[in-house]
Amino acid sequence: MDSITDPAAGDLWVFSYGSLMWRPDFPFIERVEARLIGAHRALCVYSFVHRGTPERPGLVLGLDRGGTCRGIAFRVAAAERAATIAYLRAREQVTAVYRESVRRIWLRRDPHEPVAAVCYMVDRAHPQYAGRLSVERQLHLVRQSAGKSGANRDYVLATVAAMEGLGLRESELHLLAARLKGAHEVSAAPAPVHRG
Fold first, then answer.
1. Of 13, 20, 31, which is closest to residue 92 (Cα–Cα)?
2. Alpha-carbon distance 44 to 109, whole Å?
3. What does the pLDDT look like over 123-155, one tens digit per residue?
4. Residues of the chain with pLDDT under 70
5. Which residues of 48-75 are buried (b: 16+ CB within 10 A; e: fewer)?
């Protein structure tokens, strides 16, 4: 048993920044807003399984280096530690595009005392690392793809809704969500031509 899964280590904190915020699917005893320093949320991972396929890749979030990320920290009881890590590894490590790491996070309720939390950081050397893509390219990938967890569009919109629930606004993700909802296309549509 590794130290991350060892229940003797006490309760487990898990930092979430994407779909784990709105669909954790593991038992937890506390849910708290939190902040991670040194990494930021980015739509920088090609999805070949959950939100796309190798033939029609989707695009999902990763924690990429630099900046700050606000998200949700879940506290899991020590007795559920090993089962939760096993679940997270099966969900997040299916193609090994994320590196499991333990990082310090700051909980909103106690910003002066950081806690150690499991985080899934993107591996920049992995072939599924997309890097920084234009909004147009993101839009194309997200619109075209679906995987075993559903449509890529639904993933982006649900994540943006979860962020808004925390009072977060990230301009590029919100612009993408607006385009996916059709707001941009509607406002940019030419006025009808009346003949007669």
1. 20
2. 30
3. 999 999 999 999 999 999 999 999 999 999 999
4. 1, 183-196
5. bbbbbeeeebbbbbbbbeeeebbbbbbb
